[in-house]
Design a protein that fits this description.
heterodimer; A: 255 residues; six-stranded mixed beta sheet; four-stranded antiparallel beta sheet; B: mainly alpha; two-stranded antiparallel sheet; 16 helices; 74% helix
């Protein structure tokens, strides 16, 4: 992994009132790298992900993808917020998968997947449908095109959500606790799809509590606490030999 | 209680095995109360039918005679298209007002709030009379530069005929109420839905139109159906400014021949017909927007009718 990182985060800060959720985050993600964010709840993991997609606006610092600052335009010593339309364009390159799936319940599986490509990339409906079928096959759900989300299990819904995000052909995928709302026996099928993605060298940032997945798939584990990255490195290092007290305590509790 | 006792004692006497029990037919609970209430309802219904048929002062012959006459049908037509025009224009305005009210722009938000507050405060009849009498407040309206040259000037008395006044007043009224209905519907859709749409890169407008609004519809439709049905009847207030809608048409007739009750019944029956048609329409629209909400798909019209009307459900096990 050489050259400039695909995603560069520097000095990112975000507070709700007096509560500092992100307190100076620095993180590089290289093309094809899988970064897993670990840490106790309230550490700022989800907020960090949501900032990358500009669903939350940071108070300071910046996030740049491919040299382009997300949500802002540099102007002298200022970063000026972009128009919603411009943010929309940037988001098209970043896929996001939510804990609660957030599929559109009034649309069939295929319509869920085809909506954004048709709306943004001006793909023909037919092309988008073909792409949708291909992606459904990739997540192991061929034949469910015409089902509504309510007719699927949680694991199936989350796999559709992944296919929907992939339909925009993103360069970066964000996963916000993708298996936390699932029954234990359904977790495996979603993780399997994510492993396939990682094997296909998709750049991913994953917030999860699945330590096994982190150990097996992550290139880098970043441990967050109190809005800072207190420890980061390859899984072997962070999981087996954590230096920071807070990381040690957390890992002792979950392992 | 008695039935339960019987069932228990039967089991005690025969003490069937598990296989027998598993193979036995399941019988739904009897509902004697339903039969009783049905009998009472039937008697009441018979009484109503009896008085309708035997009281000569209903004058069914006269009703039949006037039911489909030219003036009545013309009035019906005006009621129909006035309702349609007011509803569609008012609703479009209402959606816009709801979007303004939910926007981040303080100016738009206050404008929408102020408008809804003002219109909801004034009785529709007063609004109607106000627009009709606009000429006495502004004898003429001009388009041009303030204090400078005027390009177009219209005399208000010519502009605001009864019909236009009715259309404007009712439309502005519908806009205010539908804005609140739509706003409530939009608020009922979870935040996660618009976030998911935005994370896919959909524009805010597209996310609103394709993702949020269709999901707000199940919450919006019943209230809207309600408003449409009450609007059909509310249009009858235009009779006070001599617009010949359904009600005013029959009033004109009974002012001449003094057959007040039969002619009011002519109008009533037509209003009932319109409301019935709209209720059926509302059912189908609701079913369309409920797609994806149930695991089994939609329920047929007659199944719902049977479940809600006692006439159909009595006599079924």
């Amino acid at each position: 992994m050489t050259g400039a990182p695909l995603l560069k985060i520097r000095g990112l800060r975000k507070a709700y009132g007096t509560h500092r959720v992100l307190d100076g985050i620095d993180l590089d993600v290289a093309e094809g790298e899988v970064v897993v964010l670990l840490g106790p709840s309230g550490a700022g993991k989800s907020t960090l992900l949501r900032c990358v997609n500009h669903l939350e606006k940071p108070d300071g610092g910046f996030i740049a993808m491919d040299g382009q600052i997300i949500g802002y335009r540099p102007d002298g010593r200022h970063l000026r917020e972009l128009s919603p339309r411009a943010v929309t364009r940037q988001r098209a390159g970043i896929g996001m998968v939510f804990q609660q799936f957030n599929l559109f319940p009034h649309m069939t599986v295929l319509e869920n997947i085809a909506e954004a490509p048709v709306a943004l990339r001006r793909k023909q409906k037919k092309e988008a449908a073909a792409l949708g079928r291909e992606l459904l096959a990739r997540v192991g759900l061929s034949g469910r095109e015409d089902s509504y989300p309510g007719q699927l299990s949680g694991g199936q819904q989350q796999r559709v959500a992944i296919a929907r995000a992939l339909a925009m052909e993103p360069r970066l995928m964000l996963f916000d606790e993708p298996t936390s709302a699932l029954d234990p026996e359904l977790v495996g099928e979603v993780l399997a799809v994510m492993k396939d993605l990682a094997a296909a060298r998709m750049t991913m940032i994953v917030v999860t509590h699945e330590i096994g997945f982190a150990r097996e798939v992550a290139d880098t584990i970043a441990f967050l606490d109190g809005g800072r990255i207190v420890e980061s490195g390859p899984p072997a290092e962070v999981l087996l030999n954590p230096r920071h007290d807070r990381a040690r305590a957390f890992l002792a509790a979950v392992l | 209680m008695g039935r339960t006792g019987n069932a228990v004692s039967q089991i005690d006497q025969e003490a069937p095995g598990d296989e027998e029990l598993a193979a036995s037919r399941l019988v739904p609970r009897r509902r004697p109360g339903q039969w009783g209430s049905a009998a009472i309802a039937l008697v009441l219904l018979a009484m109503v039918v009896h008085t309708l048929l035997t009281n000569p002062r209903f004058q069914w012959g006269i009703i039949g005679q006037y039911f489909a006459t030219r003036p009545v049908l013309d009035g019906l037509w005006l009621t129909l298209w006035l309702t349609a025009a007011v509803m569609s224009c008012g609703y479009l305005l209402g959606i816009g007002l709801a979007a303004m009210r939910l926007s981040g722009n303080v100016m738009l938000r206050s404008l929408s709030f102020g408008y809804v507050w003002l219109i909801r405060s004034v009785p529709p009849l007063v609004q109607l009379l106000f627009w009709y009498e606009l000429a006495s407040l502004y004898p003429q309206l001009s388009l041009g530069i303030p204090f400078g040259h005027q390009f177009v000037t219209v005399r208000t008395a010519h502009l605001f005929t009864g019909l236009l006044a009715a259309f404007v007043a009712l439309t502005l009224d519908v806009a205010a109420f539908s804005a609140e209905i739509v706003r409530g519907g939009i608020l009922s859709v979870g935040q996660g839905q618009s976030e998911a749409a935005q994370s896919l890169g959909l524009s805010r407008f597209r996310a609103f139109r394709r993702i949020v609004l269709p999901q707000a519809m199940p919450a919006i439709i019943p209230a809207t159906g309600n408003m449409l049905i009450s609007l059909i009847k509310a249009t009858s207030i235009v009779s006070v400014i001599a617009v010949q809608d359904l009600l005013y048409s029959v009033q004109l007739i009974y002012n001449e021949n003094f057959l007040v009750i039969p002619l009011l019944l002519v109008a009533t029956i037509w209003y009932i017909v319109l409301t019935t048609v709209l209720s059926v329409g509302q059912y189908y629209i609701e079913r369309y927007y409920a797609r994806g909400a149930s695991r089994t798909g939609g329920r047929g019209f007659w199944r719902v009718a049977r479940a809600n009307l006692p006439v159909f459900s009595v006599g079924q096990p």
